[in-house]
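Sequence only, no structure available. Ideas?
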Amino acid sequence: MQVFIEECKEKHINFVKHKYRIPDYACDTNMETLGINLVDWIGYADDIVLCFETRDLLQKAVDVLSDTFKRFNLNINVGKTKTMIINNNDALNEYPTSICSLEDKRIDNVKVFRYLGGNIKYNEQNTGDEEVELRLESGEAKFYALSKKFFNHKIPLRTRAQILNTLIRSRLTYACQCWSITEKQKQLLCSKYNLIMLRKMMKGGFHRKDNSMSFKYTNADILRLCKSESLDKFIEKQQKKYLAHLIRMGNTSTSKKLLFDDTPSRNPGPEITLFSSVLKSENISAKDFAKKALAKNF
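Reply:
I predicted one. C-alpha cells follow.
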C-alpha cells in the first residue's frame, strides 16, 4: 500500500483529513496536542477501505490502486468491491447506484455494507438501526437454534445463563465497545435479553401475580436468580473500559485522534459519541474520567 500512497501523492490525489484536539488532561505530557490527521487507508487482513471527499478523487484512486496491484500480479474483484456515500442526507436527489468504475465495469454504490461483522448504512451517522436490527436478529436466531439447551430445566438455571452470555449475549453486543447508540436502541437490546430470553429460560418466568398484570418475578429478580447483569450495564462497562484504553494510547494513535476529532459537525443538534455516552452513564466530567483512565482505575 505504500507504493499506492506514493503514487497518489505524485498525482495530487488527496486523502480525507480531519482535525483533532487532544486536551492536556488526556495526555501523559499534560500538554494539549492538536493537528490534522491523514486517513489514507484502512486495512484488515485482505480488506481495504479508501476514503475521499469527491467522486473524481475516488475514481482516480481506484485506477491507481488497480494499476499498482497489476504490477504485483494482483487483480481487484469488481463484484466484491463496493462504494458508499457516508452520511448522505441529500433528500432531493435519488441515491446513485454507482459513482465510479473499474476497467469499464461499474462498481455498485450500496446503501448498506457489512464490514467486519457490522452493518453500516449510508444515512446513519452513529450506530444506526440497521446495525441494532442485525444484532437482534443474530442473537435471536442463535437463541432458538439452541433452544433445547436453554429450555432444558434439568440443567441449572445459572449454568444456562452462563451459556447464554457466552453464545448469545456476545452476538447481541458484538463491537459494543465503540457504539454510539440512543437510549431507545439500548432498551430494544435490553428487552430482548432481559425480558424475553432470560425470562423464557425460567420456569414460570411469565407467571402473573394474583389479580394483577404484573409479573411474579421482576426483571431484578430474573437477573439475580440467573446471576447475571442487565445488558445495558454490560454495554456501559465495556464502553468504559474501551474509552479508558483509548485515552491511555499515545497521541500518535489514529484511534485516539479520531476519539478527539475536532472537525465541526455537518448535522444539526447535539452529537451522540462514545465519549459523551460514557460520561453520561458514569456521571463524571471528561477531565476526571481521563485522570482515572491514565491512573488505570478503569
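The mean pLDDT is 90.
Hope that gets you unstuck.
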